[in-house]
Amino acid sequence: MVISFIGHGQLSGEAELYQKLREVLDRFLPREESVLFFCGGYGDFDRLCASVCREVKSHYSQGEMVFISPYGTESFLKKAKELIDLGLYDSMIYPPIENCPPRYAILKRNEWIVDHSDLIISYVTHDFGGAYKALEYAKKKKKNIIDLTCL
């Protein structure tokens, strides 16, 4: 199972959101199969999700945290390796978007994440920006979405 996250770069009320996310993962995490947590690595929501996933993973041996990189440049891949070396992620994937112009890389990376996810946990509070576009794409693809704004 692949669980991914869609949310804004800036958040408020992080403590409450942390608790909601933890409860959702405790409830929906399959106990009998391995799980990949796809994380984007940008902004407050991504950091919050990565933190919760690390905590959950410490009690769940079948989980792997995967940083999904929007860029394949040498400097960016070096930074991703440092995040793995620090134990913030277990591995990294650079999706096949190398022919995408850099200004669209995050959008295309987000679409790739949605396409390869079984469950998406979202926290999108306004109708503009990259998180909103990714959530709309996930809805169009009829993905299983848990909306933290409704909990």
Number of strands: 6
How large, in whole angstroms, is the Cα Rg?
15 Å
Into which percentage range does the β-strand content fall? Answer: 15-25%
Low-confidence stretches: none
Shape: globular
Give the total of domains: 1
The CATH topology label is Rossmann fold
Overall SS class: alpha/beta
Series of H and E elements: EHEHEHEHEHE
Mean pLDDT: 93
Describe the biggest sheet?
6 strands, parallel
Count of discrete alpha- or pi-helical segments spanning 4 or more residues: 5
CATH architecture: 3-Layer(aba) Sandwich
Strand order of the largest sheet: 4-3-2-1-5-6
What's this model, at a glance?
This protein has 151 residues and is of the alpha/beta class.
Structural write-up:
With 151 residues, the protein is an alpha/beta fold. It has one domain (2-65, 95-150): Rossmann fold, CATH 3.40.50.450. 42% of the residues lie in helices and 19% in strands. The chain has 5 helices and 6 strands; from the N terminus they run βαβαβαβαβαβ. It has helices at residues 14-28, 43-57, 74-85, 105-115, 130-140, and strands spanning 2-7, 35-39, 63-68, 91-93, 119-123, 144-147. Strands 4-3-2-1-5-6 form a 6-stranded parallel sheet, sandwiched between helices. Helix 1 packs across helix 2 (43-57). It is globular. The chain starts with a strand and ends with a strand.
